[in-house]
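Pipeline run #58 for the internal structure catalog. This entry was flagged by the ingest filter as a single-chain record with no existing model, so it goes straight to prediction. Upstream metadata was stripped on purpose; only the residue string is passed forward. Reviewer on rotation: M.T. Logging verbosity set to normal.
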Amino acid sequence: MKVGIIGTGYVGLPTGVGLAELGNEVVCIDREPKKIDALKAGKITLYEDGLEELFHKNVKAGRIKFTTSMKEGIENADLVIIAVGTPPHPVTKEADMKYIHAAATELAEYLQGYTVIATKSTVPVGTGDDIEALISKKNPFADFDVVSLPEFLREGFAVHDFFHPDRIVVGANTEKARNVIKELYKPFEGKTQMLFVKRRSSETIKYASNAFLAIKIHYINEMANFCEKTGADITEVAKGMGLDSRIGNRFLNPGPGYGGSCFPKDTMAMSYMARQNDVDMTLINAAIAGNTKRKQQMAERILEAVKGIENPKIAVLGLAFKDGTDDCRESPAMEIVYNLLEHKANITAYDPKAMGTACQLVGDKISYADDMYSCVKDADVLAILTEWNEFKSLDLNLASTLMRHKNIVDCRNLINADEAKKSGFVYKGIGK
């Protein structure tokens, strides 16, 4: 199948590489010449575990190409996937649809023969109708269908999730369009559930799923606060909760709040859509407010650990919003860093993959270390903000000798509290 993908970000690029690996002929389109030039030169433009190897394999095989030309990517395509950003509007926090609308209007001119337009971007309910209208207005003779094809790729696990989806949701209003998507995902037949629903239901499923998970994260963080006051251990509480099959054990890890490119913007967009439809969504609104407060609380804990120390140095391990990615968008770690900087904090940070993207956000307002141990050298407190596996292997005895004051604020519960105390640290975890 010939597939055009508009957008080469954290959704578009892994999707393009994955579809190429399945044997499709893929053309990825992006407006940024520097990004396309890099991809053409064989340079991957984002980090995802396992992506680079598949990228080079399929570029070499000629199954995936890159262009800034909409015409080149759309002409003769059987399927066009829209995977551009829908960032929150700076004022209303609704999903900003300008990139979606621009892509739909531009691609309309180049449609040839029957084409399915699939929206993989997370979009408000009714967007499929809008895209349909825009294309028909620009090209009244176009033969096409618009489907909703929400992505459920977890950042850091996008390659794994593409090839091992727990479900494929398709919002299609015609049998012809459903058959095209069935053909696209034929390699997964019998391996996962493919759910065909109305287009508006599909658009809602993505928001409903992300909002529910965000609420679950907010809930376990509130329970962690409760445990700290009552003497319970949130790790044990979460384990007991997770054994209930109705609850499940995923997203029950307390921490500094949810972040990334999806949960913050999708909860705000869901809240906006609810208000527009006169629906009161108190749970989502509470999660949004609580998540903002959560990051402030974590910054306060770090500052409390160095209270009374003159010109304290804060060592930060982790800048990405989660392990396995270099994405710092809406990262709780970065939000905590911003909060600390407001208090004139002296920060040295280390992250295995996200140093470059973090530097684009804060520049030289913080210092960057080459590894964990140069990061903690002469520090007065160590703050662990992202759950990278390598942080679990921190040599606590060595870190103890390197640091000026022995304080750890572990916002991810990565370090063994007993071992930290044996090494002389004052240790503060979450929910303990």
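catalog note: DSSP finds 18 helices and 14 strands in the chain.
catalog note: The radius of gyration is 23 Å.
status: ready for reviewer M.T.
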